[in-house]
Design brief:
CATH architecture of chain A: Alpha-Beta Barrel
Strand order of the largest sheet of chain A: 1-2-3-4-5-6-7-8
Strand content of chain A: 15-25%
Number of helices of chain A: 8
Number of strands of chain A: 8
Structural class of chain A: alpha/beta
Number of domains of chain A: 1
Distance between the termini of chain A: 26 Å
Order of helices and strands of chain A: EHEHEHEHEHEHEEHH
Oligomer: homodimer
Radius of gyration of chain A: 16 Å
Largest interface: A-B, 22 and 22 residues
Amino acid sequence: MKRKIDYTLYLCTDRGLMSTGNLEDAVEQAVRGGTTVVQLREKDCSSAEFYETARKVKKITDAANVPLIINDRVDIALAADADGVHVGQSDLPAAVVRKIIGPDKIVGVSTATVEEAVKAQEDGADYIGVGAMFATGTKQNTRAVSMERLAEIRKAVDIPIVVIGGINETNAAQFNGTGINGLAVVSAIISKPDITAAAGTLRDIFQG
Amino acid sequence: MKRKIDYTLYLCTDRGLMSTGNLEDAVEQAVRGGTTVVQLREKDCSSAEFYETARKVKKITDAANVPLIINDRVDIALAADADGVHVGQSDLPAAVVRKIIGPDKIVGVSTATVEEAVKAQEDGADYIGVGAMFATGTKQNTRAVSMERLAEIRKAVDIPIVVIGGINETNAAQFNGTGINGLAVVSAIISKPDITAAAGTLRDIFQG
């Protein structure tokens, strides 16, 4: 059966942005601070390494009862029995992902327009990421999404929305009252010296 | 049901080594020359591009009744409904691949030692690639496999073996009488101005 997810604070990992320590430790600290979803994103490693990392991180997320989502790689998600997969517009199409991953896993899709959001919902996505909301050093070729566009997307789809892209403790409060379901962050948690505290601060700011 | 494969001439694609034209044309010319298996190997593109390329190449291989194997990416193999997947020692473990791809798809594994070959067979591989047999510019960190080692591997496993790594028209005859099932080549077909003729030449040389 499909897992019910609390999207409030959604951490995307990025080893390149980590200030210290290893990835498993960082995830452990983030979930201790109130992170409710973890997405594992690995772009520059072998499939074997991605799989091994996913298995290690899953032990931590399982212990914290937090779902683990794998970025892009449906095969790694299946191999590690993760809770789901997240795909962007240049990954496998969501409808294809749904077909090969089955009905019980979570499928998330990155979107930046109303059209992409509606298509993701039609294709069987469980949630969408919307962004980039702000300028960010994490992703190249990011397309900025205005607060007006976000409101249009919120009206156009029923599935949960997490916002992503440059969100941090100074701008997170803007999303209170917008009807979105959570904040997706990378550096605002993973780059901080005190990851647990950074996650806790974001949770305190975002009330939904 | 699992497809019965003729491994005689096994082409691994590599866009970087192509002398001219596009990939689909090259595959079409290779199967016209007698290529019996095509493995699609794409390392530097998005998942969406890999998937689209796999779908295009599959139209060609289907029309020629030649099986299509996807390198590394089990999800792309499933998405494109390819005939199987080929994994190396730094990809997903073969036993995990078998579990997620199901019993009816072909699973191939790259091996260089008796131990790796026996493990691949135990883990459910349908065939193994053995190499690198000769020095090659295609793969970094290749481990050379001697003809003696190849004979040991042939004795140790029952599943089909294709040899790979620097095989071309000047050395292919060495494998006649060794009990292996086919030649896997990259540049000896894909880099040639006349791909159809190059494939035909290799087929003529290797009699098994």
